[in-house]
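step: validate -> pass
step: tokenize input -> pass
step: predict -> running
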Amino acid sequence: MFNKTRRKIVFTVVFSLLALMIVTLGTIYVSNRIAIQNENEEMLRTYVERYTLEEQPTHPDGEKPDIKPDDKPDKQDVKPGPRDDKPEKSESRFHLSTFYSAAYSPDGEVLSVNNGNNALQSEESLLEITGSILRNGKASGRTGNMTYLVDKRDDYTLVAMIDGTISDNNQTVLFKQMLIIGSLALAVLVIISVFTARRIVKPLEENDRRQKRFVSDAGHELKTPIAVISANSELLRREAGASEWLDNIDYENQRMSDLVKQLLALSKAENGDTPKEIIDFSKIVDGEVLPFETLAFEKGKHIDSEIEGGITVKGNSNQLRQLVSILLDNALSHGTSDTVELTLKRERQSALLTVANGADEISADQLLHLFDRFYRTDEARNDSGSHYGLGLSISKAVTDAHGGNINASYKDGKAVFTVSLPAEKN
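step: predict -> pass
step: emit ->
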């Protein structure tokens, strides 16, 4: 039980930290990308504002460029503009950025091409990209690693782009570094959470261990006075004869003896120190059904059983018999119908035992507490037999000790108890 609690604590901490890390990294990545995009768009607008068509200059080596006769040898030039109209940092980024542009006449003729000194794009690829942008019809946007802006002027249309390769790569590197650092930090926090979970659960585990030891020790200590009371009652009966007072002493002493036996059984099941072996669970269930059929007949009821053969589990035969016995006794004692339905079948890698009986409506709150110690519904409290609200607690302890689970449900006027145990492979 406490191992599950520790795992839940660690899982909760790790899940919370992981969610926080994803949200934080996602927020940083998105906000940083938006900031870079906004800055690129601002610099691109500045570039477009400063753009003018002028005479095509010669190449740095003094030779004229190879231009087709039907092309106009014009080239754009960017006016530097006043240096004091922008902060120095923004202006520096502007001059360090790579811009591309192409100017088109109203009839689609190329007037000027600037490929950023062949930085990353050739004129052919640049014209292909700008042509695609014009066909797209959008005034601004992003294509690949470049942000573009289309400016329609009186005598030509300008398609300007800013290269975002470097900023995108920097952002990718930053995100990877944050991811690596975040993962390392998460791993460290997982180790810390495991240690913290152990520290948190340790006092609870120790307290539970003391309670179990107390129940076990008290049960063993009570066995002696119960035996003495029983012996003295028998002697008094021989000396003084039968009386209602002695009968009452014997009745209450027997109830106390049954209660102690159940407390010891619960303690033994919760300690989980019983030996286990491969056993035929089908035979155990079938063997427990037979004696209860007689009891059911005496109460005017019958047991409708459907048991699949050959289902084996690893467990303690005495405890598993007790588990089946508790469920059948509970169904016969508190059921309102004449039939108790029991089924045992293999479902995937589990042995599924189901016991169902007609019952008065059980609320959702009652279902949550059915397996608590000494818990009884109002109907069960009127029972004058040897039911103390420990039977279902014992069944849960036995199921947990065998690595299974048990649950209760109320459907169609029936109380249904379902036990799932790990089944051995055939």
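step: describe -> The radius of gyration is 42 Å.
step: cleanup -> pass
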